[in-house]
Fold each of these.
Amino acid sequence: MDRFKFVLTRPIQLIPVLLGVSVISFVLVHSIPGDPVRILLGTRATAEVIAKVRAQYGLDEPIWVQYLLFLKNLAQGEFGRSIIYKTPVLDLVGTRISPTVFLLVYGVLLSVAIALPLAVVSAARRGSWADHAIRLYSTVGLGLPTFWLGIVLLIVFSLRLGLFPVSGWGQGFLGHLHHLFLPALSIAIALSPILIRNLRASLIAEMDSDHVIAARSRGVPQARIFARHVLPHALIPTVTLLGVNIGWLIGGTVVVEQVFSVPGLGSLMVSSIFARDYLVIQAITLAFAAAVIMTNFLVDIAIVALDPRIAL
Amino acid sequence: MRKTLGRVIGALAVTMALLGGPWEQPAAAQGVLKIARHQDSTTLDPIFTIQNADIWVMNNMNGLLVRVNREGTDVEPDLAERWEISPDGTTYTFHLREGLKFSDGSPLTARDAKFSLERLRDQEGSVMASMFSVIKSIETPDDGTVVITLNQPSAPFLASLAMFSAAVLPEKALAAADNANAGETGDLEFGNNPVGAGAFMLEEWRRGEVLRLKKNPNYWEADRVKLDGVEWQFIPNDNTRVLKLQAGEVDAIVFIPFNRVTELQGNPDLQVHLDPSSREDHILINHDHEPLGDVRVRHALYHAIDRQAIVDAVTFGHGKVANSFVPAGAMFYNPDNPDYPYDLEKAKALLKEAGVEGLSLRFLLTAGDSVHDQIGVIVKDQLAKVGIDVELVKQEEGQQWESTVAGEYDISVNYWTNDIIDPDQKATFSVYGDDENRSYYTGYKNPEVAKLVEQGRVELDRAKREDIYRQIQEIAKRDAHWIDLYYSPFRNASRKNVQNFYQNPMGRFMLEDTSLQ
């Protein structure tokens, strides 16, 4: 397929996938026991009041009618109104999207910043104490639960050393960078081990490959071989892996945002599920799904940029 | 290779040092109190909510005709400086203060009070409407006088008016919100942009993050308010909230876990506030599920559960065994109410007498609530000693409420905090036994108690009322309508420099008296 066509048609494939996601999440969320209006108004509200408020939000309709209504509103660019906050869902989600995106990008960049040098050292000095230490880190890092790690980081860096704020996301770019460092670091500590192991393996494979040996025998300087021949090839599987992990990463931010009280989509998702705020859950699920699909799309493009031989 | 790596590490180190250094957030403006809490507000329209997270903020934003005093024992003048009650107890005449204004600067008149109370009573979806259906009509002979006529005398009426729902709101702003958003959602807009007549007014609300209030210059008691503003930060994680206080990023936090109280009390930078609350935790008993309808079986449960052990384990000694459904220290509470001592032999004898053997109970608990987990395990262990098998059924909170309302439980942990200082509200919900609430979904009904609750509602003589409510407490206890577990205080903490941080037993933070040193 020609590349241009791919870039154009791929986003269109989003639509059926998102529709499928919306049906599944709608059914799943509505099958959780518990009524949002009862949760909102508690056990002291009379059945009459509960029924009236349910009717206000259309919750008294059968679920398929509610879904069709949701679709109809969606077609007009309306996501409906949050039952809990009583504001339009789109406004609510809109204000919460930036912290999550910032945190994800920050976490990925930090992971790469950690993984790249460590994997290179580990591959270049195979069997050395540095290699063993780095491999130990990637094993331990994989096993640490994020919620525990987050609290430990908070106690050490925020409470004892006073280097970083405990929670929130700050003002301005530098403020965000400062506030979200520990959350991004806990993402990086979870994600970088995967990248290190993968990158180390492919670096070693590349370094032993014929064309690298040939280049070395031609007397090409080591640094040039590494930069021109080894790294670009070794990166391809790692970039693919990173793309595959974005979905997992988005799930991970839900936990990270809770621990660090980051006002992002993940923490909104958790509170909305507890409150059965159906339309908010629906909107966030769709946003997450779209993000995963789009990232994989971008990864596809990135791989082609890294290796023009790969056809789309 | 080595050089590159060295540079990368160097750059990272520099970045980290910089991040920790000069870009530190500037200190908050003088006089803004930052409080971290575990729940976020949902709306600031008082008639559409019953959530503490909303009530605790609105208490400091809205004016009432009368309000609960600092100690939470009586009502005192707020917007109305004085009032008269007709001898037959059906006509209340309130005289408003001179020159009252809302936070937007518009004048507050008797018409606003009339509009607000009628809206509270009549508006579709008004949560507490049933408590105000006793209002027959409201007249406003002039801008400073509100005359409320009731269908029948109502002893708790003044206390009800001191409740958050009865806030006096501007008719103009409510009508404008309605007009701007024609249709069913119009009313909801006011909750996002409220205007009130309390100590503080809304500055900014970033949902799920922070709700900022600033001092209301038009508040009638503005001279009393020392803070420039209040920031309610939403920090759901208990550990993070405590860390934020320890690191000095907030001035105060609410709802610290019981197991952290002693530790925080030992921190010289902090003060822990265990202010008395009206909270009572209890175990509901479903009287409709045999043999729980048999009073002897309910007595046996009472005798078989060592409630002191539960208080010690759960509240780390900061709670107190409850002897009545009326909260300790609340109006007409009877400290000498009879109670059931822990007595396994008696419990066994009672079960035998009732002919109950091999009883198995479904115990409904809130999933993920560590206090409920503890109570569940202790009760299961204790009841096993008298041959009762307990099955722990953990449900997520929303589901637990549904099951409770539907009566799908044998026993269930639950709690109550008072909305008004008068015992009528809780008595009506907990022991009256009307068809709607069925004594808090237990199915308990004793005609003698129901009659006393009705008498207590219309009896205007305080001494006679006290006698009535003492009887109610005693009979309900004798009937073991549910199992009273414990009373517990509010659990808040603040930095040492915070003065007069106090939550009254009705849950109202007295922030008009709070200051930062």
Amino acid sequence: MRLELRRVLQGCRRGVLTGVGRSGDHSLELPGCLLYTRCGTVPHLTHQTLHTLQHLPAVTLIPMDSLAEHQEVLEEFGGGMGKFAGLQNSVIFCSLHDSVAPHPTGYNTNKTVSVWGSGGRIELSVAQYMALQRAIRPDWYQSLADGDTQQLSTHKRVRKSVDRTLSNLDQCLNLHISTEGLRGSEVFGVVEGGVMLEERVRSAQETAKRPVGGFVLDGLHSRTVSQELRSQLIAAVTKELPEDKPRVLLGVGRPDEVLECVEAGVDLFETVFPFQVTERGCALCFSYDLDPDPESSVLESREKETKIQQKSGDDTLENQEEITQFEMNLKDKRYRDDFRPLVKGCQCYCCKNHQRAYLHHLLVTNELLAGVLLMLHNLEQYCSFFQSLREALEGDKLNALKKRILQRRE
Amino acid sequence: MAASMESKAEMGAVRAVSAAAPLALRILAECPVSKARACDLILPHGTVNTPVFMPVGTQGTMKGITADQLQDLGCKICLGNTYHLGMRPGPELIEKANGLHKFMNWKRNLLTDSGGFQMVSLVQLSEVTEEGVQFQSPYDGKEILLSPEKSIAIQNSLGSDIMMQLDDVVSSTITGPRVEEAMKRSIRWLDRCIAANKNPDRQNLFAIIQGGLNAKLRKACLDEMTKRDVPGFAIGGLSGGEEKDDFWKMVTLSTDNLPRNKPRYLMGVGYAVELVVCSALGCDMFDCVFPTRTARFGSALVPWGSLQLKKKQFAKDFQPIDPDCQCPTCKRHSRAYLHALFKTDTAAMHHVTVHNISYQLTLMRSVRESIIEGRFPEFVRTFMKRMFPVEGTYPSWAVDALASVNITLDGACSGQGCDSALC
């Protein structure tokens, strides 16, 4: 695997990863995103519906949380998770934790890390974790890590998390070399350190000394970490990392946060955000168009005004505060008779075939198709946003894009 | 658009069953042994090959699978429920969307029920009078009257290719004067529905034969309703928990008395054995929520019964649901993967829904081909043997029903003097 940096603009790395995957014949444009799945399936979607989308990420992410309980099955199957899930031609990255699922705190020890599957908690030692990876046979996987730190964790706890994670990494790398089934896979080292700058730097420096294929920046997704602090920590970390290896940030996905993290030196994200938007019955509708049609942008800002007015009104949704300015809440009554596509010009199956009123109906009646159509739309929009970001970096239009994304902040 | 133009042109060539109805039935083959037949049913949104199973998309969607997926499976007609759609989003909105086809973006045919069946399922909430069915909206508690005129008005707004008359539905297990009252009222309501149809040139209205399990009442209903110039007939009031021996006798009585040149729709039937047997009895169309509902519980239909994919026995079973099945699910996924996915994501349900719809449609295509090729009785024997491989386990009602149309099953006992516990 080779990382070729084409240019660095305001800290943003525009590049391409080539020779990706065991076969070495995939490539991945940076900055980019990994396709979030659980158990190898993008939530709500079958192979048939997923592949109505044109520009899917080349790497599929599968969290260990959704796999650990299937160890016996995967071992007996013997062909690896990709083949098991019907993902024959995909590059698979096995991460540790599902960014969406809750992870109770206090279960990691010096010897083990816990993951949570459908049947509850599963405690994994390094040896067990590596046996699982051997059965999964990913193209990339992250080392076992203790990311169980909070904003209020003591220095001692944070230091322990860094030490444990480094020790786990060394053990993983040892076992990796001796495991026949993992030949050709890349191990990604995990940078921990909570919100403590010196621990973050130490974790980065030490991890960078090891023979890893890339880096996962863990423990920065907490809602309690402000973007300002997150950016500072990430910038300090990426300064310590070699330029020629990819940096993955999991659990962060809002478009404005993505932009700032890219400026701090992150290369790869996951498509968790579009899934979260789908789960609350919303559709991404933010503008990332670099050359917007002036007429439609006037309309857009007008629409935004009414949206804000409406918000102060009688919206009784419990998760209202979670709804970001990048999305529209299709459960809202005013979409009842709105016969426009979700987003004009969007190339997804949903926008080419359906109207807002239909989506509103599906959501109100709790129909399963709502999740399918919204997931398709939100993935399309999100992947296009990354495409636009890469184009902005190539065409010196980053500031214009930032302005476009941030203008909708309230 | 093209499809509807084409079918209109086709309709010109075949004599339409009634002067104005937008429907034509072309009988391609009739089984020389049984009453089975294979037809082309030409409707405003394309031709439907019968016998046909129609999947049910209650609220304007096929349970998590897209219109394109449904079309790719070869589905030419599916159902929408008037009761549900009339409540949400309501006929005014669907009219504003230019009909249910446009609203859900389904380019092929739609059949809507009358909303009457929900009278049985929501009986606590409803009261039936000559005027119609009075019930309380479960959404806002408002009193609503569903009259024959109202049902047709809603179905006119939905724009379905086939509408069903409002009938007075009573449980198939009820006996006594209420059954006769319901049958007679259904005839009066049929006349009101015919008069209320604003779009007889675009929307077909089917009558529904009632009469419970009473042969005399059924026959009376058949005699009366077949005098009306409707484009098709449904056999109603069955498949509600009655004895199978009563069920098939009512079906065969109905097909014996329905006109040959009009489609016959057996409502609420969808188990594979029932589909095959009732095709032999001369039914053309079927619908049931069973295949899609059971899919969501992890039950996959196969020629030898069903697989409960959530059961532990499938955790390490790396074969597809049915190795002979050509559906997208079977071509890509194993039972073991689906078993694992059922613990994680709703997509597991979609995979099995796709498979089960494919199973039903493929089964009906096989029935049709065998009728056209003149080997239907042989097909039935092979089908039954695969479904009930253990000797003496054929359900007796199916044996009797098939025998009544001259199809005898290999190794099936007549029921008399047999000491099998299953007889």
Amino acid sequence: MNTPLVVFENVAKHFGDFVAVKELNLAINAGEFIAIMGPSGCGKTTTLRMLAGLDQPSRGSIYIGEQLMNDVRPHQRDTPLVWQSLALFPFLNARENVEFGLKMRNQDAQIRRSKAMEWLERLGVAEFAERNVDTLSGGQRQRVALARSLVTEPQLLLLDEPLSALDAHLVIRMQSVLTQLQRELGITFVYVTHSQSEAFAMADRVVVMSNGEIAQAGVPRDIYREPANRFVAEFVGRNNIISGTANTVDEKSIQVKAPMGTFDVPTKTNTPDTDKKFSAGDMVTFVIAADLVQVTRTKPKTENSVECSLISEEFVGSMVTLFLETADGTEFKVQLQERELSTLDHTTEGAFYLSWQSDSAHVLHG
Amino acid sequence: MRNETKPHAQKNNLRNQFLLDWSLRFYVILIFVFVFAPIVFSVIFSFNSARFPTIPLESFTLKWYETIWADPDVWEAFRNSIIVSVSTALIATTLGFCTAYTDYRYRFRFKSAYLALVLLPPTIPLIIMALAMLAWFSKIGASGQLWSVIIAHSVLTAPFAMAIIRLRLNQMNKDLESAAWNLGASEWRAMREVVFPFCKPAILSALFLTAAVSFDEFAIAWFVSGLNKTVPVLILEIVQGNIDPQVNAIGTIVFLVSMTLVMIAQVFFFLRQNRTSN
């Protein structure tokens, strides 16, 4: 399980003056579902295209199964890609689209047909086999595109934001289709997306990219709870980011003096080797996730608390986000269950108090 | 529907609308009359037994068609015209496809200059082009041949083919060709399996249109063809000699041939428009 199938070694990609990928070192294990996540222009799609051979790295080496792939033409690789645009062939019907990869491998027409039908069946779209792809719905086209990529039984499947054009409820359904497929087939999925929820829902490991570099790589929980740097903390969203100077530093915690108060922050994280050693007087930035903050109308007795006024609230079904502001103008976000909000008297004027357990805070090392 | 205009204003509006509708209809009819009346007359007189085109008509006859059927010169001219237009269509469409594809696929310096040059030939006055072709062909000892007409016509019509195919290529999803490579198709295979099928309606449309343009073209053919007369050249020679109703018969056939070609081209053109709008 732990043999790397794909290795990026000091890979960079420039388009003229534009640097798409600055420096990439990444090993992807066989059988892993890896999501590469980041805002547009962060280099995630270029990374995927380099794996498919559609872009050549300007520097560095890419290995797939220990073979150096830098000069291997796209059609000589077995790295099918599920396109954001799906890129189904409009002049072929669903079955002929699925057969395409086998046809290019000069497989017998009989075998092509039965394999294509098998995959359409497996993805639940066999009944549309003879239909023109233009007449299918978004979800059906998505399944045909998946079948087309998987029919050659590759070791590695590349997916470029394949769900971005679908309706919200279809996205959830396709997510479970994809994770189930990946478990059953045991092959490696490299999934590029800008959507945190897609990445967290499906991937074994998430790579967050920013400006052509890896900002953080790790299991979804670590990315969410222990962002390595300010970029990840902001990108993952719903984090309150506080900066201040270190008053005192000991083995376990740092006391941080910030404009709106003084807070205790634990120094330990899950990644002790890359942790920075802080000393008194250093600038320290820490995050406290919006869902780990308690909000009350009476002043709490705990240490880590701030006084705020309510600015606005955002209702998204079972969850509600409150936007609050301290006297010095720092904005805080608090996420709570909708039913918790009903126990809080949030409609009357006056101060709100935010507090959190000191070990809920997470110091940024980058 | 909400309508706040007063009754008499409404009446005025309706009357204006009516006038506008009918003047537009009259205008369209007028255009069709100007375009088609001479041709219709030519068709009618081709079945008229009188030697001169006068009204009232005399009796119905197929005499003029019999005359041209028996005339080896006419057969020769039609044979030449068919050879020229078929070869021209093939060459011009191939050239057109290649330039359209270069435009679609590659980015390079002076590309806009390249495109302007490619699209230039139809903007040159035909007579200038014909003279230039004649001068050039006689310099290199290639004038007076059937294939000199083919070369000249290919130069003239390739831009049309390119324009039609380029329109189609611009509708092609940029990922389609990459998707073919990604699924194991070499560049040539992807061209054969994806680009050609996608462009097929446009390619057919271009073939028929360039054939039609070549079949009708007179000026260049007259200068360059020498003794290998095409149909339009033959018509002029007959008319120069004397008034002979058999030109009406030839004209009718030429008209039918080129209308058919253009109509087939149109059908392919619109077929593909509908396909993509779905």
